Structures are given as structure tokens and as C-alpha cells.
Amino acid sequence: MNDQQLARLVLLFFLACAAFTYPLLSIPDQPQLKAGAPLLIWYLFGVWAVLIALTAYWAYIQRKNREERP
Amino acid sequence: MNLTFVLVGAIFYIGFLFFVAWWVDQRSRQRSISLVQNPFIYSLSLAVYCTAWTYFGSVGRAASGGLSFLAIYLGPSLTAPLWIFVLRKMILISKHQRITSVADFISSRFGKSGTLATLVTLLAVFGIVPYISIQLKAVTTGVDVLTGHAYPYFKSEAHFWMDAAFWVTAAMALFTILFGARKIDPNERHEGMVAAVAVESIIKLIAFWLVGLFVLYSMNSGPADLFEQAMQREDTRKLLSLSTSGVPVMTWNILLLLSAVSFLLLPRQFHIGVVENTNPRHVETAMWLLPLYLLLINLFVLPIALAGKLIFDPAVLPDSYVIALPQSAGANSLALLVFIGGFSAATSMVIVSTTALSIMISNHLVVPVMIRMGRIGRSAGLEGFRTLLRIRRWSMVAVVVMAYIYLKTAGTGYDLVSVGLISFTAVAQFAPAALGGMYWKGATREGAITGLVVGFLIWAYCLPFSSLTQGGYFSNTILIEGPLSIDWLRPSSLFGLGGLDPISHAAWWSLFWNIFFFVSVSLFTKPSALTLTQADLFVNIHRYQKGVEQELRRRAASLSELYAVTNRFLGEKRVQQLILQFEKTHQLNLKNTQTAEPELINFMETHLAGAIGAASARLMIDSVSKEANITLEEVMQVLEQTQEVMRYSKALETKSQELEATTLQLTQVNEQLKALDRLKADFITTVTHELRTPVTSIKALSKILMDYSHELPKEKIDTYLQIIVGESNRISRLINQVLDIEKIQVEAQQAPMMEPVSVENLVQTVLTGMEQLFLEKKIQLEYEKRGDQWQVLGNPDRLTQVIINLLSNAIKFCAPTEGVIQVVLTDQDNLMELRVKDNGNGIPAEAQELIFGQFTQLKQGAQDKPQGTGLGLYITRQIVQQHGGRIFVESALGEGACFVLHLPKI
User: Fold this and answer.
1) Closest CB from A31, A48, A58 relative to B244
2) Does A69 have pLDDT greater than 70?
3) B307 within 8 A of B220, measured Cβ to Cβ
4) How far B79 CA lies from chain A's nearest CA (Å)?
5) What is residue B775's three-state secondary structure?
6) How close does chain B come to A12, measured CA to CA in Å?
7) A12 interfaces chain B, CB cutoff of 8 Å
8) Which pLDDT value is given to residue B514?
9) A16 touches chain B (CB under 8 A)
10) Where are the alpha helices (DSSP H) in B755-857?
11) Residues B276, B279, B281: CA angle, nearest 5 degrees
12) H or E segment at B558?
């Protein structure tokens, strides 16, 4: 794990912080439905899923790197 | 539904879990490979974060606050990428120090302080009790709903044994002891418990998904239909966004913060995440798998809440919707399954929390007191091991009973989430000391204690005190008018800060003052030697990880006493194993040793700390060991050694670079010296040769004259005599010049006789005198003057000598045929320049400075005989320097040499 790879996680954290707090959060925060579900639900769960996917990808890269140079 | 049916279901389920725990324990013991050493099991067991609060309470919270319930899960999720820094560091530190609880962690950081350990334990117990109480409440409510309200959890008029909550409490206490305190592991590992918790995590997720899918697709026709219905009604429509459901920005942010911190520092989270962790690398998996779990378990919360609101009248508790919905649709077995899921969530929380708290209570409250009272110690006959287990079990019962009492007194009027958040706020008080201490070396014990006490008092005043007052236990006037009618001390708007919900308000003030006192007191107090050691270890754990173990506590103890103490808590078998391990790693044989080395004492202390906590272990070991006095300076010294070494090696690098440069210079100087030495040797040969030649000819000629004077013709005698005189002159000239050097060097010490002189006149005089010589040698002289000011301050005799020397040299070295000498006199701004240029072979660049040295002669070719004494130019330069002037040569091989003389004008 080098510093650059660790810094990517910090970036991810800052992006997640921005996405899940105000003022960004106020954009989807409206009581209306989009494709059958509230806009806010799409937004919160969508961003959340992306965050999980990116972190999982990061962990996958780490594991691959470790396997390549044992 | 029949109560027996519910009970059988629950007992069957607990039996199954117990079997899982037992099987895992057996397996790991027999095959010494643990099933728990797996990143997925680790991540699933971390999901003990999702308790009855999540299972029942989130729906309840969503029914009034919409999606605000999600903040509790988003907080840990968005900080999950940072776990690789924070959680991993906590694990590394704890493995290194054998830390077994969050109280142990904080106390270890601040010099293994017993006070701090006790304080954190008390805070944790008071803080977590409300949290455990909501698990009891949720399970009791579940039973109540399932059995059609035959067994309400709170019947004030009935005896306590008629109360369902009492039996739930008793059952929980029993489960906890079965899972958490059957035996004592020296490392506080409960693999069976972890496996059971992981299984429970799967079960509660499946159960929650089943009820979610049932509500969406069986009771409604899909999510679109449900949300469409919700849009139609005002009270459900407003739940679809945060702003309309009345969640202030501040509350949302505070919830994110509280949950992010609590996820790491709640005693049960610390226990599962840090103490039970088998490999720090598992954090990498948990970083994404746990947020995924949280996402999945929350997916159906809002739909269930909306469905409940649409179907039920307001009298039905939203916290019970999860069970009430399938039950209302007649799906009784699903309702039971859902209850089992919630029961799962509640039991895993209670088991792990209570186990973690019991470790803290026994290690930091009971054992230290017993050691001080002499109940456990060297001479006490008690079997420490069994005592410890008994203490653990009783503390578990005490914690669960306290939760029951809290439920009865203060917890009735509130929904699950509100009570749970009280605990989150309490746990957040650990953050400055625990997290700050991991990154800030300057934090002191006093700072941590002050911060914790202040934060805890504000928390207690604003939250539990308030709810107790509202429950009618204290006078209501304090809430309305403030204590002693001081308005700005009202627990709901401290210091006049109103307009916030109680949790945000309490969290803000308690954390603000906690951090303020933690930092400011730290800045004004000095850490003890031990605190400093521990601080370095916590902050720079990665360095210690690489084996830079530093021995700081110099202690000595009798080996037998050390064994006696450790045997009591670790058991003889374990101690024998440890001794063998120690002997192997240090290549020692301790059989014939009487005293224990500091390394062995430290080794045993860390392992003992695994059983009874760092502070207690220190107390125990201190009772048998003597510590050499160690001063703060010494500690600083050792700690700075590593940095010193680094500084030293950097300095060494600079030094070696300097050395290289110096060596280069020295080599160059040495080369010059060697050249000079060669020249000097050559010169001595020359001088002796020069002296011998005339002496030889004088000797030979004189002998001829003496022996044959009467036979020789007159002309021949005259010639011989002329030669003798000439040769004698040559010798005396050489001797004179050597003497001149001596004279000039002496003169240099004194001020020479100076007067205004015209250089032009001197040059003119010399040229006139040498005219004949030029003619004889057939040398063409070109004399040129530029300017008209030639006055300098100087000694005319000496300056004349300079000009003669330069001209004689030019004559000597100019081309043998067609020789040309140019003399140029220039009047410059403030100096006078004389250039004497010949058209000889020239002087090579490396010799241009050497020719001005003593005894230097320029060889013109291999066979050439040196033509002078080798002192002329040396003398010239000495004179010029005495006059404050400068002389140098400009030349290239084959192009002649031009001597340049600069003298300052008057």
C-alpha cells in the first residue's frame, strides 16, 4: 500500500462527505417520485452503492497487487 | 399467537446459535485453524452494529422523520474508506499492547492510568445501559405484539415477575454468560461468540428482507404502487424528503458524526472490530462489505414505515410495524420469523455489549480494588482464574439488571432510536481521548480526564437527567426555568443555545467542551514518563511494528514471584507455554535463573494485560517487581534515539561529502607540491651544476696558469684570466641573488623607503643602459608609451631591478634569431601598466604561476640547459608586492610570453 493508493481513499471519503451533506443533499431533497420511487431514495442509495463499489474495487486492487508480488 | 409457541421458537433459535458457537470453538481447538479467521466473518460480525434499533427502531424513526434514520448508517459508511487508517491502527496498537477494551485502550495511551480506565468504564456502563434497555424493550414489545397484547412489557400495578420484560432480561443475562463468559481466554477471544454473531447478522438480514418483500409485493403491488399511495396522503408524502419531514441540517450532520465515531468506539464495536480481529488485513474487506450490509438492511425501511402508516391507526406503535404488518395480513409464521430476526439483532447486541462491559468492569473496577485490598495478590489463597470468571459473570448480570431498571424508570416514554442516540452521544465522548491520542503525541492524562469528565457531565445533565425529569423523578421546574431559576442553564438550551433537538444540543455542547478541555489542559500539563512512552507507541505504531522494540521500564523481579502472579490469571499451562516461547525467541534458558529480566517482565505483563487489562496488569506486576528510577529525561532520550540516529546518519552523509571535496582539494594541492618538489630537486641540481661549472673552469685554468705560466704566451694568459674573472662574476651574481631574496624578505617585515618615482624615467634609463646588449644579440626593441602620467610611490633602486629582471628574462627567452621585444607603458585610470613581451617559446599554462616561485626554472627542452638562477622572477614579484602592485604573465606555448606589471599611481 503506497501513499498514493491510500490518498485515493481519502479522496473517496471527501467526495462521500460532500455527497451526503448539505448543500449538495438539498438538490435531490424533494418529495417527488422518479421512476416509481422518491428522488431522495434514488440519490442516497445510488451514491451509497457507488461508494461501496469504488471501495471494493480499491480493496480488489490491493489484493491483486499482493498476489502479484508475494 | 400462543406464548408457548413464541418461546419454543426463541429457545430453539438460541439453541441453534449456541451449537454454532460450540462447534466453532471445538473446531478451532482441535484443528487449530479458526473458522473466524476470515474477512467475511469479520465483516458480518461487525454488523452487530445493527441491533433491535435498526430492526424495529429505524422503521419507527422513518414513520416520523422520513429518511433521517439513514444518517446512522451513512456515518459509518462514508467514513469506511478511512478505516484503513483508523481502525487498522487501533488493531495494530491493541495487538501490540494486548488491549482488551476501549477503556483499556484509552488508559494504555495515557500511561496505563488506572483512574482513566475506571472513568471510561463508568462512562461506558452508564452510557450503554440505555442502549441495552432498548433491546430489552424491543424484544418485550415483539412478544407483546405477537401474542396479541397479552404480555405488555410494562405493567406498573403488577409484580415484577408478572412482567415480560423481567423474563426477557433474565434470559438475556443467561445467554450472555453462556456465550461470553463460559471460560476466560487470555486474549479475550470469543470465537464461538463471533461466529454466532455473524450467523445472527445473516439471519436478521434475511428476515428483514422477507418482511420487506412481503410488504411490497404481497400487501402492495410493488414499490411504485406503495410510493404512489404515499404521495396521495399529506402525512406520508412529507416523509419522502428530509426537508418536509422536519429534519434540520444540523441534526443530520450531528447524526452522521455520532454514528461514524460510535461505530469505532462503542464497547461492542471495539470488541468485535479490534479485540476479536484476527488479521488487520480483514479491514480491507470490511471497508466495503459492511457498508454493503448496511445498505441492504436499510433498503426496505421506508417502504415498511409507509405501509404501516397507510394501514394502521396512530395508536399502533411504529416501532412494532415490522411484526404488526405481516401479522395483520395473517402471515403468522412470517411474523414469528421476523420476531426471531429482531430477537437475533437484540441478543447479539446484548451479548457482545455486556461481554465487553463485563471485561471493563472486572478489569478496571473490581480487580484493581481487590488487588489494593489484598484479596488478589501474591499471598492471597484465592484462585485468581476462577475469581475472575465469577467477577465477569456477576458484572454481566449487573449490566443487564441496570438496563432493566433504566427501562422501568426512564425508557418507557421514548421510541427506540431516541434512547439509542443517548448512548451514541455518551460514547462520542471517548473520541477526543481515543482518536486524538492516536495522532497527537502531546495529549496528556490530565487533558483526557478533564475532557471526559466535563463531556460526560454535560451529557448526563442534558440527556438522561432530562428524560428522568420528564419521567417525573425530579422537579419539572428545572426543565422549564433552569436550576435555581437560571435560565441559561436549562438542560434543553444550555448557555442560551436553543432551537436544536435534544441530541444535537447535547452532542454539540458535550463534544465542544470535551475537546476544548482535552486540548487546552493537555497544552498546560506535562506528561509523565510512562505516558510519553505510550504516546510514542500509539502515534508511531508502524515503527514499533517493524520490531524497533524499545525497553523503557527497567524492572527486576524474582522469577518465582513473577510465575506465581501470572499463574493465577493465565493458568500454569499457559504460563509454561509463554516461558517456552520467550526462551525460544530470546535463546535463553531460564531454569537456573533467579531474577527475571526486564524483557521477560514486559512480556509477561503484556500477556497478563490480555486477561485483566493493562492497568490491573501493571498493578499486579508492580507488586512483585522493583523499578529502577527512570527519569523523564531518560525516556525522552530513548524516544529520541531513533530520530537521533537518523539525524546522525544525515550528518554523516554531509560529512562524507565534505570529506570527498576536501580529499579532492588535498589531492590537487599534493600534485602541486609534488611538482614543486620536482622543480626544487631539478633546481638544486642546476644550481650545483651552475656553481661547479665556473668553479671547475676557474680551478682548471688557475692550475694551468700556476704550472705553465712561464711557457704560455701572453695572449693566452690574458684570455684565461678574463675567463676566470667572468666565471667568478657569475658565481658572485648567483650568490648575490640568493642574498637578495633574504634581504627582500627581511624588508617585507619593515616599511621600505618610498618616494614618488616616474616609471617612464626608470624604463628609459634601463633601456639606454641595455642598448648595447640588444645590439649584440641582434634583438629588435619596440618601445611604446600610451599616456603621460607615470608617477608611482616606490623605491627607485628596487623598481629598476624589476625592470632589469623583466628585460633580461625577455632577452634570455626571446627567439634566438630575429628576436623581438616589445615594451609598452600604459597610463591607465589609477594604475600604471608595463608590458614586456618576447617572441620566444612561451610558457605553458600550468607553469605560469610556478615561475614566480623560489628556485623555479623553466626547462625549455629536454637538452636545454637552464639559463638563469631561478630566483629572478621570485625576487621581482616580492618587490612588486611590496609596492602594492601585481605581476603576472600572459602566454601560450609557441607565442612568446608577455609579463604584465601593474603599479598603483599616486
Assistant:
1) A31
2) no
3) yes
4) 6
5) helix
6) 7
7) yes
8) 94
9) yes
10) 759-777, 796-813
11) 130
12) strand B555-558
Q: Which CATH number does B3-24+40-415 carry?
A: 1.20.1730.10
Contact B243 A9 (CB under 8 A): no
Q: Which residues of B touch A17 (CB under 8 A)?
A: 78
Query: Which one of A51, A60, A67 makes the best mutation probe of the B interface by having the most chain B beta carbons within 10 Å?
Result: A51
- pLDDT value of residue B863: 42
Indicate the class that CATH gives domain B751-904: alpha beta
Q: Tell me the C-alpha distance between B314 and B310, whole Å.
A: 10
Q: A-chain residues within 8 Å CB-CB of B284?
A: 59, 62-63
Q: A55, B287: Cβ pair inside 8 Å?
A: yes
Find chain A residues with C-beta within 8 A of B80's C-beta.
51, 55
Residue B548 is predicted with a pLDDT of 41
Cell numbers linked to B817 = 634569431
Class (C level, CATH) for B634-746: mainly alpha
* Cis peptide upstream of residue B303 (ω within 30 degrees of 0): no
Q: What confidence score (pLDDT) does residue B67 get? A: 87
Residue of A nearest to B294 (CA): A48
Q: What is the pLDDT of residue B105?
A: 92
Q: Three-state DSSP class for B789?
A: coil
Angle separating helix axes B430-439 and B529-539, nearest 10 degrees: 80
Contact: B81, A13; criterion CB under 8 Å: yes
Residues 6 or more apart whose Cβ sits within 8 Å of residue B351: B172, B175, B176, B179, B180, B193, B196, B197
The residue of chain B with its CA nearest to that of A58 is: B284
The type of residue at B559 is: L
Facing B78 at nearest CB: one of A1, A16, A39: A16
**pTM of the shown model:** 0.67
A18 touching B, CB under 8 A?
A: no
pLDDT tens per residue, range B710-724:
888 888 888 888 888
**C-alpha torsion B431→B432→B433→B438, nearest 10:** 90
Sequence-distant (6+) residues with CB within 8 A of B366 are B391, B395
From B621, B596, B602, select the one nearest B550 (Cα to Cα).
Answer: B602
Please list the residues that pair with B626 across neighbouring strands.
B556
Give the residue from B43, B240, B256 with the most A CB atoms within 10 Å of its CB, the best one to mutate.
B240
Ordered DSSP codes for B340-373: HHHHHHHHHHHHHHHHHHHHHIIIIIIHHHHHHH
Alpha helices per DSSP H over B463-501: 464-470, 477-481
Max Cα–Cα distance, chain A, nearest Å: 53
Does the ipTM exceed 0.90?
yes
Determine the residue of chain B that is closest to A28 in CA distance.
B241
Nearest CB partner across the interface for A59, out of B252, B287, B299: B287
A44 and B74: CB-CB below 8 Å?
A: yes
Number of domains in chain A: 1
Cα B307 to Cα B305: distance, rounded to the nearest angstrom: 5
A58 pLDDT band, cuts 50/70/90, is very high
Q: Residue ranges per domain, chain B?
A: 3-24+40-415, 551-630, 634-746, 751-904
| Residues contacting B428, CB < 8 A, separation 6+ | B257, B258, B261, B262, B265, B507, B510, B511
Which residue segment(s) compose the domain that A22 sits in?
3-68
CB contact under 8 A, A37 and B292: no
Residue ranges of chain B with per-residue pLDDT less than 70? 1, 31-34, 149-162, 183-188, 374-385, 411-413, 469-488, 545-554, 626-649, 683, 686-687, 689-690, 738, 741-742, 744-752, 854-870
Closest-CA distance of chain A to residue B207, Å: 21
Facing residue for A12 by CB, picked from B81, B237, B292: B81
pLDDT of residue B517: 94
Verify whether the Cβ–Cβ distance A41 to B231 is below 8 Å. no
